Amino acid sequence: MQSSAHTADGAAPVPRLAAHFASLEVQTHAARLGMWLFLATEILLFAGLFVCYGCYRFLYPEAWAAGSRSLDLTMGTVNTVVLITSSLTAALAVHYAKEGKNKMVGIMFALTLLMAIGFLVIKYFEYSHKFHIGTLPGRYYTYEGMQMPGITLYFTVYFCSTALHALHVLIGMGVLTVAMIRAFTKADFGPNNFTMVELGSMYWHLVDLVWIFLFPMLYLV
Amino acid sequence: MTPSSSLDTAGAAPHGEHHDHHPSYLVDGTTIKSWLLTVDHKRIGLMFLFWVLLFFLVGGIFALLIRIELLTPGPTIMDAMTYNRTFTLHGLVMIFLFMIPAIPAVFGNFMLPLMLGAKDVAFPRLNLASLYIYLAGAVIALWGMLNGGLDTGWTFYTPYSTHTTTTVAPVLFGAFIIGFSSIATGINFIVTCHTMRAPGITWFKMPLFVWAIYATSCIQVLATPVIGLLLVLVTVENLFSFGMFDPARGGDPVLFQHLFWFYSHPAVYIMVLPAFGVMSEIVSTYSRKNIFGYRAVAYSSLGIAFVGFFAWGHHMFVSGQSTFDAGVFGVLTMLVGVFTAIKVFNWIGTVYKGAVDFKTPFAYFCGFLFFTVFGGMTGIALGTVSLDVPWHDTYFVVAHFHFIMVGATIMAFLAALHYWFPKMFGRMYHEGWGLVSAALIILGFNATFIPQFLLGNNGMPRRYYDYPERFQALNVASTAGASLLAFGFIIIALYLAYALVYGKAAGKNPWRSKGYEWVSESPPPTHNFVGPQPTFPEEPHFYVDPKKAEVPDAV
């Protein structure tokens, strides 16, 4: 990601072209391609967990059904809506960045971040409930109400995948915070320079996308 | 970014018209900081070379300790637990810290932009970051190895790895971090190939080394995340007993093996595909002939990368996998042999009627050809289920993967080191010593591992500390071979170190090669080329008349 050189006289911001690129288009193309490849690796990271999920679901269908029914569907649904909406505001930020409306970029990212915090708060309530009743992974599983082979594995998969997802939410929040601060303080995004906003937003869409897989897998099916 | 390492803005006039004003990358900035914070792909490649060689030394010393221990049955120089830790450390260091980064991170980094006529890789700062991520992972993993050690072998098979009291967590976490470095390098090279090619370099005018690195990078990007996840899961399980792969809690250890080999089998091609790329360059240069079947060689790299993803199950023939699965994985494994054979035939076709200039890198090419074909053929044999079952986890397997992974890669690494030494340092080494040490190393390698084929075939299992009397003669032979190998490496270290300081100037293109990387100076200036971006009107490896190969025009 290339930052822009802010001109001292207040003229239109000019994005900086690193010397090793032939042109600005090539530089943007490279940044975008790099990000897409990185996102592919992220999807593959989660794909490993999906394989574990599929394998154990096949081995322990009853435990999987019982485990998935024990989750709070309302909280999960609200979280899904919150996260999808946050993706919308992240996409709008890119739209405004292309128009050079830096204030709107900042506001949109601020909204995205608020919703991300909301997501994590709901997640916190879900987690603390599970900590309370003891539906935890592996040897920490103490809940008496649900006893069948493979049930502890369901919660292992549940906690591993949601925790890894939550970690990605936190990383995404960090990226968006940096972009938001830049938009507010430096106001240097514009038609020629929105790579950072675009890539940050792409990362946020990935976080959203992974959740869109996790939600039906863990809560619905 | 420091002033010395920041890149000039495009179009800004360089410091002068004369070549003298463009110092080589080696002397452009001499402070420690100018090296440690550089974004120049050549300096990063050189720093990688330093660390990779250091870890090779560490792994090599531990290999020798294993060989000395196995010199006699029963305890020789260490106890059984130390032995377990020693072979684990040997495997881990050699695979994660040497073999995987060796050619891509050192020579890929150095040569890829030069071969594409680019000033640098696409993301220079990410490139530097990948060096430090690699070092951070190495430090964490080695710290774990020294504080308690790990006795699982480099494959970390569960449930043993989740129950052993040795330090699994830091070592696995270190390997996980090293994976990030591998991914970052892979992404960087793919994007570089897509966006940084000089005008005129179409996809099918890229040198074959670039093709090989491109295919390798695809594997790195696609396979590494899976093992990253797996290492995290095993670490978590080892620390907190989550039971993901623990049969006592309903977990499936075979699932671990699937996920592990989904990365670790393609990882073999991360090691060996760059080696194939190096050999394509070398065989063309020293035969003074255009590479035979350029497109077939390029496509077969992608073919190996692709098929390599569907062969992992051959590590699990005896894991309780169904006979049908085993058959499918066996056939898919043999497909790799088809693509590799395409390359081998094309190399031989290139040498045929060429004007062979038998220099040190070409000597390594000969060794490489033998190791690849012999190692590859034993691989086909091992891919046959009925043969794999008796050979499984014996020294036959050890000898096989050392032949193909280590033999082929070491040959290519040394060939690349000798071939590009003049380009990287601007100096020549002593050809006679080069040939002597190449002969020593090829002989030593055969003497080390051919006895192991026989040992395995006679039934000696791998990773065992003790063995019956009747295996001793072959073990002694193997240890003797390993000593010869070590001796060869010492000679190389000595004459290359000498050449670094006292070697005579190499000039721009000492091998009269048509490779694109020889167009720039030796050693190249910081931004690789003096003046405007070069164009490459001819195809790479383009020799008009093998008997009178011409030096390419200076740009």
From TrEMBL, chain A:
SUPFAM superfamilies: Cytochrome c oxidase subunit III-like (SSF81452). It is a multi-pass membrane protein. The keyword Membrane applies. Keywords: Membrane, Transmembrane, Transmembrane helix. Residues 32-221 form the Heme-copper oxidase subunit III family profile domain. It is found in: Cell membrane; Membrane. Its main location: membrane. InterPro entries: Cyt_c/ubiquinol_Oxase_su3, Cyt_c_oxidase-like_su3, Cyt_c_oxidase_su3-like_sf, Cyt_c_oxidase_su3_a-hlx. The keyword Transmembrane helix applies. The chain crosses the membrane at residues 33-56, 77-97, 103-122, 153-181, 201-220. Signal peptide: none annotated. Pfam families: COX3. Belongs to the cytochrome c oxidase subunit 3 family. This is Cytochrome c oxidase subunit 3 family protein. It comes from Myxococcus landrumensis.
TrEMBL record, chain B:
SUPFAM superfamilies: Cytochrome c oxidase subunit I-like. Its EC number is 7.1.1.9. It is a multi-pass membrane protein. Keywords: Cell membrane, Copper, Electron transport, Heme, Iron, Membrane, Metal-binding, Respiratory chain, Translocase, Transmembrane, Transmembrane helix, Transport. It is an enzyme of class 7 (translocase). Residues 35-537 form the Cytochrome oxidase subunit I profile domain. It is found in: Cell membrane; Membrane. It comes from the Bacteria. The chain crosses the membrane at residues 44-68, 88-114, 126-146, 166-191, 211-240, 260-280, 292-314, 326-349, 361-383, 395-421, 433-454, 474-502. Pathway: Energy metabolism; oxidative phosphorylation. It catalyses: 4 Fe(II)-[cytochrome c] + O2 + 8 H(+)(in) = 4 Fe(III)-[cytochrome c] + 2 H2O + 4 H(+)(out). Residues 1-22 are annotated as: Disordered. The keyword Membrane applies. The keyword Membrane applies. InterPro entries: Cyt_c_oxase-like_su1_dom (IPR023616), Cyt_c_oxase-like_su1_sf (IPR036927), Cyt_C_Oxase_1 (IPR000883), Cyt_c_Oxase_su1_BS (IPR023615), Cyt_c_oxidase_su1_bac (IPR014241). PANTHER family: CYTOCHROME C OXIDASE SUBUNIT 1. Belongs to the heme-copper respiratory oxidase family. Cytochrome c oxidase is the component of the respiratory chain that catalyzes the reduction of oxygen to water. Subunits 1-3 form the functional core of the enzyme complex. CO I is the catalytic subunit of the enzyme. Electrons originating in cytochrome c are transferred via the copper A center of subunit 2 and heme A of subunit 1 to the bimetallic center formed by heme A3 and copper B. This is Cytochrome c oxidase subunit 1. It comes from Myxococcus landrumensis.
